[in-house]
Specification:
Order of helices and strands: EHEHHEHEHEHHEHEHEHH
Number of domains: 1
Strand content: 15-25%
Radius of gyration: 17 Å
Bound molecules: cytidine-5'-monophosphate
CATH architecture: Alpha-Beta Barrel
CATH class: Alpha Beta
Largest sheet: 8 strands, parallel, barrel
Structural class: alpha/beta
Number of strands: 8
Shape: globular
CATH topology: TIM Barrel
Helix content: 40-55%
Length: about 240
Amino acid sequence: MNIARRIIVALDFDNVDDAEAIVDRLGDTGQSYKVGLELLTVAGPTLATRLVGEGKDVFLDLKLFEIPTSVAGAVRAAGRLGATMVTVHAMGGSKIMEAAVRAAADFPQLHVIALTVVTSLTDTDLAAIGLSATIEEQVTRLTRLAQRAGCHGVVASPQDAALLRAELGPDMLIVTPGVTLQAEWNPPTEHARPAHPAAAIRAGATHIVIGRSLTRAPDPAAVLAHLEDELGSCQRPTT
Ligand code: C5P
């Protein structure tokens, strides 16, 4: 898979015009997009459908945490739309992940990606919700659960990528948000454990998700082109 498809641009916008403007500015350089709850809620699936029609990869970041029947229905809807990735919360347990994987089986292009621990959380946050595990222990536990449930990949912090690659073997996808670029236009970030995209790829991530430090840059296409060059020369993942 070419490196451009491994760099997923997060279209975190509160209106479809701004999201479309970024897609238009990125042109052929942008091959993979993440559409999340904010844009879906304001704009519906129109932009996702357009992107699929143009041959782009679309990661629908639905972060599903529901009863298995509802999760399966949402995954089928994502598959019919032509999405290539959909997220389910591993914290929701094996049954919902298994339901998601079964529902995705009818859509060969669709990968079920389990969300382990969101990158904004710290050990203290886990304790506050009643979990005595450290972030690392919780990520490992949920990753094992996701693999046993048949998920195609996991979302994880770039700093957990090496641990997870060792845990998962070579085949599963590791999708890492929480990456930052060193640049003067970088907005403040709430990521607790950020890393540069190249570090994430070298550690075994197959995909990175990049949002504001690219979409809010003065020249997003130049930032993406530079990133593609940089990551293209990193050690290539095997999947
Ligand atoms: O910070 P940035 O704008 O690059 O975020 C891109 C994506 O990373 C967001 O769409 C969000 O889903 C994910 N993210 C995350 N944890 C955070 C912040 C963002 O997983 N703390």
